[in-house]
Design goal:
With 156 residues, the protein is α/β, with parallel strands linked by helices. It has a single domain, classed as P-loop containing nucleotide triphosphate hydrolases (Rossmann fold, 3-Layer(aba) Sandwich), CATH 3.40.50. The chain has four helices and seven strands. Strands 1-7-6-2-5-4-3 form a seven-stranded mixed sheet. β4, α3 and β5 form a beta-alpha-beta unit. α1 packs across α4. The radius of gyration is 14 Å and the shape is globular. It binds adenosine-5'-triphosphate and magnesium ion. Magnesium ion binds next to α2. Adenosine-5'-triphosphate binds next to α1, α2 and β7.
């Protein structure tokens, strides 16, 4: 599925639509620096009711959110030197409970990170952005359910 995202609000809205079907899963966010990955996560986490600031975990690499119906772990692996470092970040614990892992720069964790249920590819389109959402599992398809049915305005 492709979504045209004319501005940052539209990117947040896409995150909010994903939040409606949120479930334990692994989402990869792929795209260049500034493509809008953190913006999408912000929309998702705010839609789950978190009212604080959602910042990029640039230096901590992971930020946990105690949300319902499951905890959310936002990972930004841009500064991960080696996939093995994921153990030090507590990946085992994150995967030890039903949780949503949403991961920027998943390629940096290749080989250690579990495979994606859903991959969101984000790219520049002039000043706007395009998102392509590609499910890989049943959980990934279920995550897309609400995007498909409730956002005819931003999808084509
Ligand atoms: N659809 C959009 N159209 C225009 N600007 C957008 C859109 N979505 C997000 N932005 C803007 O792009 C900038 C970068 O966004 P963001 O930090 O989410 O990118 P990122 O992919 O997380 O980058 P990084 O790889 O550095 O973590 C922000 O200023 C944000 O408001
Ligand atoms: Mg980011």
């Amino acid at each position: 599925m492709r979504c045209e995202l004319p501005d940052a609000d539209a990117t947040e809205q896409l995150g909010a639509r994903l939040a409606e079907s949120v479930r334990p899963a692994v989402i990869y966010l792929r795209g260049d620096l500034g493509a809008g990955k953190t913006t999408l996560v912000r929309g998702l986490i705010h839609a789950l009711g978190y009212t604080g600031r959602v910042r990029s975990p640039t230096y901590t690499l992971v930020e946990p959110y105690a949300c319902e119906p499951c905890p959310v772990f936002h990972l930004d692996l841009y500064r991960l030197a080696d996939p093995e470092e994921l153990e030090w970040l507590g990946l085992r614990d994150m995967l030890g409970e039903p949780a949503l892992l949403i991961v920027e720069w998943p390629e940096r964790g290749s080989g250690v990170l579990p495979p994606a249920d859903l991959t969101v590819y984000m790219e520049y389109s002039g000043n706007a952005r395009l998102a392509r959402l590609v499910p890989a599992t049943e959980a990934g398809k279920l995550l897309l359910g609400t995007v498909r049915s409730r956002t005819p305005d931003i999808t084509r």
